[in-house]
């Protein structure tokens, strides 16, 4: 949805609409809800799950347990499940290679890399399941009451569920707690292993001041998006989910 009227002022009734089944638009400074539609209806987050993967990794970095120059291995599991053999979104890191943490952040945030997300999770917690426990604890700490994660990628898993309201909470955290890491979401492209990929977020080139965040798609879940944009002094957060899409993963 797109607000009408002056920046900082709620739109007049009837000036907003969306094709999405679920939507929430919030003003960052005041927390005012500018538009909502089934904002507490649960849905499958797909690759929006990687926002929490980034949040957990960024906390590890912020608290000194991780460094950008550190390296994590691309295990056979990460490569096979989320890399080239998986035919899903990947940064195409070679199996058993060592990948810098900074590159993993870029791969996850720009390329929606499933191999990168699994490698980050294994590097921090040992296994995807152990990392999912960290994700769920963090979600609870942030007040994401209707969210649960079963893996760091958003690939099909019965435990992956969220709401638009919870995702806006997570988006706000990423912007405010880890602004330097958040900036990666705004980069238009990333090249790894000599493979150049463009950012999958269509809002970045929509002329609305967007600087993040993430799209997602699964056949079982449809299409979804969390975005943030700055116009003048106003930052907005939006979360949307729909069964047939306006955007891809």
Write a compact overview of the structure shown.
The protein is α+β, with helices and mostly antiparallel strands and 249 residues long. It has helices at 49-62, 76-82, 101-111, 114-125, 128-142, 164-177, 179-182, and strands at residues 22-27, 33-37, 71-73, 98-100, 189-192, 195-198, 210-218, 222-231, 234-242.
Mean pLDDT: 91
Percent of residues in beta strands: 15-25%
Question: Taking strands numbered 1, 2, ... along the chain, how are they ordered across the largest sheet?
Answer: 2-1-9-8-7
What is the overall silhouette?
globular
Given the structure, what is the number of helices? 7
Q: Major sheet, described briefly?
A: 5 strands, antiparallel
Distance between the termini: 19 Å
Q: C-alpha Rg, in Å?
A: 17 Å
Q: Provide the structure class.
A: alpha+beta
Task: List the helices and strands in order.
Answer: EEHEHEHHHHHEEEEE
Portion of residues within helices: 25-40%
The total of beta strands comes to 9
Show unreliable segments: 1-14, 244-249
Q: What do these coordinates show?
A:
This protein is an alpha+beta fold. It is 31% helix and 21% strand. It contains 7 helices and 9 strands, in the order ββαβαβαααααβββββ. The chain has helices at residues 49-62, 76-82, 101-111, 114-125, 128-142, 164-177, 179-182; strands at residues 22-27, 33-37, 71-73, 98-100, 189-192, 195-198, 210-218, 222-231, 234-242. The strands form 3 sheets. A 5-stranded antiparallel β-sheet has the order 2-1-9-8-7, with helices on one face. Strand 8 (222-231) and strand 9 (234-242) form a beta hairpin. Helix 1 (49-62) runs parallel beside helix 6 (164-177). The radius of gyration is 17 Å and the shape is globular. The protein starts with 21 loop residues before the first strand and ends in a 7-residue tail after the last strand. Mean pLDDT is 91; it is low at 1-14 and 244-249.
